[in-house]
Design goal:
The protein is of the alpha/beta class and 270 residues long. It folds into two domains: 5-165, Vaccinia Virus protein VP39 (Rossmann fold, 3-Layer(aba) Sandwich), CATH 3.40.50; 187-269, no CATH class. The protein has helices at residues 5-13, 29-36, 50-62, 95-103, 106-110, 123-132, 169-174, 176-181, 184-204, 218-223, 241-269, and strands at residues 20-23, 43-47, 69-73, 87-93, 114-119, 135-145, 148-157. Strands 3-2-1-4-5-7-6 form a seven-stranded mixed β-sheet, with helices on both faces. The longest helix is centred in the last third of the chain and has 29 residues, at 241-269. The two termini are 38 Å apart.
Length: 270
């Protein structure tokens, strides 16, 4: 079985020898790969839908791994207890959904699990939640596959008395590890983001285009997966002109700050 580049990166982030719980397993490819290659002694493939879980069970059976990989119908981590796993993998879901799953399973955060997370959007929310829960972001990977950009986050409990946090939203939006490592794929992504934001800002200088201006926000736009069109929005405002003008100025200022932050980083890096 050959994994996609995205799933290969997810699998490689798991600490060898750990039991894993794969939430939203879909076809079960990640646990199959890890167990089949001796990187994981056992696994639990979980999904909220019966269809994907049945496909996963079929693939697991075809590989002769039914005795090592269990399948479980579960909404998030609700069907699992912390003592059944060492690493929780959640890949291919939106950042907001990943945050909801973790907030509904605080016992796993309190138990000091290893988390391998691959949010499709709102990356900043996931990083904030991990820090708020007392976790250390031990590593991040940023990759491009089929024209789409993906981030993979590995989080471990922070050492006692060493609460981790980032000094600004720029690092939560793009990942302090990736920025520090000058990840080349991230640099490409940032250059594209800078141009997108400049284009939006230029449009905002034209009053007649007001209703077509996307309602973007700082980290939310930055962390939205690039395959989503950042200019696609239904958040048109029809409130009074004064309030619209104020929101417009706020968005312009926000964009200017984001463009400046990206530009400064690129100048210091490229």
């Amino acid at each position: 079985m050959e994994l996609s580049k995205r799933l290969q990166t997810v699998a490689a982030a798991v600490t060898p020898g750990h039991r894993i719980a794969d939430v939203g397993t879909d076809h079960g490819y990640v646990p199959i790969y890890l167990v089949k290659n001796g990187l994981c002694p056992s696994a639990c493939a979980m999904d909220v839908n019966k269809g994907p879980l049945a496909r996963a069970a079929e693939h697991i059976g075809q590989e002769g791994l039914s005795d090592k990989i269990a399948t479980r119908l579960s909404d998030g981590l609700a069907g699992l207890s912390p003592d059944e796993t060492d690493t929780v993998v959640i890949a291919g879901m939106g950042g907001e959904l990943i945050c909801r799953i973790l907030k509904n399973a605080t016992e796993f955060l309190e138990a000091g699990m290893e988390f391998i997370l691959q949010p499709q959007s709102e990356w900043f929310k996931v990083r904030h939640l991990l820090h708020d829960a007392g976790y250390h972001i031990a590593g991040e990977w940023f990759l491009k596959e089929d024209g789409k950009y993906y981030v993979v986050i590995k989080a471990l409990p922070a050492p006692a008395g060493q609460q981790e946090s980032y000094p600004d939203e720029f690092r939560y939006a793009y990942g302090s590890c990736l920025l520090r490592e000058k990840n080349p794929v991230l640099l490409e992504y940032l250059q594209k983001e800078q141009q997108k934001k400049k284009s939006i800002l230029a449009r905002m200088a034209q009053p007649e285009e007001e209703e077509n201006i996307p309602q973007i926000t700082d980290s939310e736009q930055q962390s939205r997966n690039s395959q989503e069109d950042p200019e696609n929005t239904s958040g048109k405002s029809r409130k009074d002109p004064e309030q619209n003008a104020m929101k417009r100025r706020q968005r312009q200022k926000q964009l200017e700050e984001e463009i400046r932050a990206i530009g400064q980083y690129l100048r210091e890096t490229v």
